[in-house]
């Protein structure tokens, strides 16, 4: 494990809550009737979690918990860590114990592991694409309901950073807020009046005229929405270090480098959480 990278950790209570809910959803009222009908109660098995495609690993604690929650006699021995870059064919973990709980937990374990690893992999591709620019990739609130904390954890596994976790931990003034509040300046001043000393105030701007109005009111962060590289570069020059600069909109693997080279501090992407393809990971089982 690379000791230079940030510590990646999921709170145990969050893992337990998420995995419990997923197992209840899958096992329903009668449990895994297929496995119960076909597999003897005393059958033992060995299995391996194996990557079918290269990527970045995320969600392993949830996969481990899925097997262990159904039977404490199931042994799970990870050989990789969340945040690791893995090749196709890489062994992720060895699993051994009673066959029934291994089979019953398989889909829940893989659902978490494939989905979160897909997010980590998509994030890492953007992070790699902007290497050396000084910009950072961050996420948005465009997440799967109920899975936000897990998906944002996966972004961190991929080398990205988190935007606000919800509506309650930062102020982000967008176009609809501005319209109802009566203008950019009025919205920022009202936000400043109620924000605690640890609460940042960010405002979204669509053009350079709005940017000048925002700068006059002094937000902490300015989001430049759907601007091309030339306009982004001009906006960064006008801001001149007076606020943290975030670029948003039209962020793809093809465009992200040019966006980063304009001098912005952050590049936010909703795609990495709402549309990242799952990483193909499988459970290879050997009945003993």
Question: How would you characterize this protein structure?
Answer:
It is a single chain. With 288 residues, the protein is α/β, with parallel strands linked by helices. It has 2 domains: 12-120 and 276-287, Quinolinate phosphoribosyl transferase, N-terminal domain (Aldehyde Oxidoreductase, domain 3, Alpha-Beta Complex); 128-274, TIM Barrel. It contains 11 helices and 12 strands. The protein is elongated, with a radius of gyration of 23 Å.
- Please report the distance between the alpha carbons of the first and last residues: 32 Å
Question: Given this structure, which CATH class of the largest domain is correct?
Answer: Alpha Beta
Low-confidence stretches: none
Numbering strands along the chain, what is their spatial order in the largest sheet?
A: 6-11-10-9-8-7
| Structural class by helix and strand composition | alpha/beta
| Proportion of helical residues | 40-55%
- DSSP strand tally: 12
Q: State the major sheet.
A: 6 strands, parallel
The proportion of residues in beta strands is 15-25%
> How many helices in DSSP terms?
11
